[in-house]
Amino acid sequence: MTDPERARTPKRERRDPERTDPGRPAPEPPQRASAEARDPLPARAARFLGSPFGLGVLACLLLAGWALWTGGIADGPVAREVRGSSVYVAPGVDLDEAAAERIIGNRRLVVLLLEPGADLREGCQDVERAADGTVVLVLSRDDDEYDTYGCALLPDRDDDNFGRAFVAEMTISNGIDGFVDRPLEALKVVTVNYDRLVKAGTVPDGTRSISPSLPRYLVAAAAVLAVLAGSALVYATGLRAGRLTADRRRLRDAHADRRSALSADTAVLAQQIIDLDQRYARMKPTAIAGNADHKAFVRDYPTLVTDYADLLDTVTSARAGDDAHLDGLARRVESLSRRAVGLSRTAELARPRSGAAATDQSG
Q: Where is the sequence biased in composition, kind Basic and acidic residues (predicted)?
């Protein structure tokens, strides 16, 4: 078939049975790799929490949550006040709170003075966790007397100490109705009743200590440990970095010393080559008439010069920081220098042969 016929013949298209077979279903388009590689959020969260870092983060979150809960993050205004004080005075109630604090002292006694008409039982329930281990008396003025509600938050108050708690709740407010207009005097009566309960053994003796909860101590200890550990880590890292820097500086200085020594030895060798070159220029024309040392010098000197040129090329292209290569070059320079010394001694021993000299004179 000629070229024009081949050009007129239509070119058959390649058939792909997988693409043109009408009975074969079309292939599904490939999904995006990013969609397949993307894990669901729960799986990624589980993988993160399963790692050591994730477990540490989870432990810190649990400790922080425990500290916030025991520290009273969910407490109301009354409970927050009672956690650090033995007296709560509602807004609008006339009472010297500082004087009331001095009267109660460090007794395990908490007094709440609420506004008239307040729910006293609810006030007692609000401070159940904040004032645990104390005797709580909730007061509210009702005309010419006090409306009272006592709750003894003693240990085992619902079991073994139920009777003692009941007696304390009924006794703690005795005799205060006569001091409605003098609330500080009423508090003095309450403290006397409390002291009688302690002497009778109804209420356990001891002082009330207001201190942060255990989780707060743990958080403080963790913070101190974190600071100490961080400081130690920074110190160790800085010390290691300083040592590495000193080692690198020492290696650089040693390399520089080796290179300086190599340069000095190469300069000495160059001076030897210059001296030998002057002798070679004088001795080469008379090499045929010279003795064995004379011929040996003329023969070996060009080899030394060639080796010296190769050495210079190697020294010029020497890699920085390669001490082994520099040591090899130093050995080559030392070897060439010994050869130059040997050639210098050979040149000193070179003499023209006597027979050849006589022949030259007769001719």
A: 1-22
